[in-house]
Amino acid sequence: MDVRTERHQPDYVLFIAVLMLTGIGVVTVYSASMVYDIHQGLSPDHFAIRQLVAAILGLAAMGSCTFIPYHVWYQHAPRLMLAALGLLLVVMIPGIGHRSLGATRWIGTTSVHIQPSEIALTALVVYLSYLLTRKLPILRDLRRTFRPAMIMVALTIGLVFIEPDMGTALCIFLTAMVLLFAAGVPGKPLGITFGASVLFGLLGARMAEYRSSRLVAFFHPFQHPKSSGYQLIQGLTAIANGGLTGRGFASSVSATGYLPEAYTDFIFAVFTEEWGWLGDLGLLAIFAVVIWRGFHIARYARDRFGSLLAIGLTASVIVQTLINLGAVTWLLPVTGIPLPFISYGGTDLVMNLAAMGILLSVSRETELELPEEDTLADIISVDEIRATRREVPDRSRRSPGRAHVARLSNLRTSPFRKTGPSDRGASLKQADRPISLSWRASRETAATKRRDERSRKPGGPFRRHKR
């Protein structure tokens, strides 16, 4: 049996932590929305039941994604990204896009609708992982790697920003930056892009009055206690009232009408008031477990695509959590980003659970020990590099820069292509080292040499640790 098909049980620590967050979210939504539902003439558990239904759908999606080999996402990444962009365009069509609170972010009726921007975030992580894996041999060629990646990121952010939804656009940008950095993209273009984006973000905040008012409320909330600073002040009051141990379940005063829509973006304030700062420590500890297991899976993933996919999905949870908690605790301006798994929101919950399912799928093919090599020979064979070089004139060989990158860009770079023994670097020692490879790729090349040396010893070329 091919080693790539050997799988084991998923990461149950991550699975249990996600289940705990989902359960806490449903219970907290019920507590935070109960009084609001009664005032609206609805059942006290109206929003809690909707959140529970979304949780059931999300858990079903997580279970399905767990047992779907994550290699499937590599094969369909471009189609998935195109579908996400299509949904972002459809939401702008009058009569199809649902408008609420001055923004058109949803597709569907007032009772059942989806938010395409949440789908676009996960789709972009999958696509960038695919692109940065496929472009590994020419990773240092910014024109062929960094530029197409940023074009897709900018297109996605632009469509989300038009809705308008600056908070989600910020999450998409920061997640993409983390993924590009982890993939080995040089720091200089990332720094320039980040600096330019900060300037564009400030300009975007000035373009709309409600964004400007949020900045004013962030710097001087107590000067506007009845307008732009009202929600932040009430959230801080709820956190202060929680104390060390909290008031108890369903005993939040802020959720009785003082804190607007307490079951959405500011649900952490309600949770703190009910369970206190000790409850906050427990909640943050569960988030820390999710993040720890996500990076653990990324570190022990058996190939580059799985590693980047795990990093991107984990980074999306980190970014959303930090932005939400920063806004509620007065560390960042209010941006309208929900707290993952906790805040009310069907599409957000389903997509986060589906993302965790993909992460669990990656965990089913990790090593027990840190791999000594990544499968560079499975990404691109040495024979292909040498054959391509033979076709290049000697004068191009003497000026390696652009010509060398052009040669590598024509190679097939699927990380899951089966290769024979001759493709696995039998003559790797005689092959020249590609000058455009990143530090990670150089490490892969050196490790592949060691693997070839071991393959000549008794015991076979591939010895795997099984659970």
Automatic annotation (TrEMBL):
Chemical reaction(s) catalysed: [GlcNAc-(1->4)-Mur2Ac(oyl-L-Ala-gamma-D-Glu-L-Lys-D-Ala-D-Ala)](n)-di-trans,octa-cis-undecaprenyl diphosphate + beta-D-GlcNAc-(1->4)-Mur2Ac(oyl-L-Ala-gamma-D-Glu-L-Lys-D-Ala-D-Ala)-di-trans,octa-cis-undecaprenyl diphosphate = [GlcNAc-(1->4)-Mur2Ac(oyl-L-Ala-gamma-D-Glu-L-Lys-D-Ala-D-Ala)](n+1)-di-trans,octa-cis-undecaprenyl diphosphate + di-trans,octa-cis-undecaprenyl diphosphate + H(+)
Keyword ATP-binding found: no
Pathway annotation: Cell wall biogenesis; peptidoglycan biosynthesis
UniProt feature coiled coil, ranges: none
UniProt keyword Glycosyltransferase present: yes
Protein's recorded name: Probable peptidoglycan glycosyltransferase FtsW
Pfam family, one: FTSW_RODA_SPOVE
Subcellular location(s) per record: Cell membrane
Membrane topology: Multi-pass membrane protein
EC class of the enzyme, as a word: transferase
Location, primary (coarse class): membrane
Species this chain originates from: Alicyclobacillus mali (ex Roth et al. 2021)
Sorted UniProt keywords: Cell cycle, Cell division, Cell membrane, Cell shape, Cell wall biogenesis/degradation, Glycosyltransferase, Membrane, Peptidoglycan synthesis, Transferase, Transmembrane, Transmembrane helix
Functional note: Peptidoglycan polymerase that is essential for cell division.
